[in-house]
Amino acid sequence: MKSIRFAVLVATAGLVVTGCGDESDPGAGSTPSVPGPSTPVVSLSSPTPGGSGLPLTVSRTGGFAGFDDRIVVGTDGVASVTSRGGKASRCKLETGFLGSLTEAAKQVDWVSVGVTKPTVRHPDDMIVAVSANGGLTRLEDPKLKPMVTSVSKLLTEATKPGNLCKPV
Question: Is the whole model's pTM more than 0.85, yes or no?
């Protein structure tokens, strides 16, 4: 059993070292500007109760597809979106959607959420982490249940701007 775990660890380390990418990319081999799957963005401030819900940061890293997305929604409703460690783009969230996202974030008791830095649980683990009002945890944390629908929609819309997120 130990030899299988070691083999999996070595294989995973090899994948991390070699990465998946297009070697014709002039940026290949450069250091990414966004943390990798095992190092989601961490909020260093203490959680605050009953905050405004914004600014809000959502990161999606890892998974079989190798996600590396980060969305920061400001109090003005403008989202800064970085996908696959590329150049950041900005889009303005539709007012109704921004309101539902903000209300969902306000329903979370960020003090009880605390600051739990998500870590990879298994190979190809996709981590969706949410940070607001000083709290940080995985989206699947039961304390973030009010946010699941809004954050899922945010990840879909902001990473590929459409009706809910217009480029600015």
Answer: no
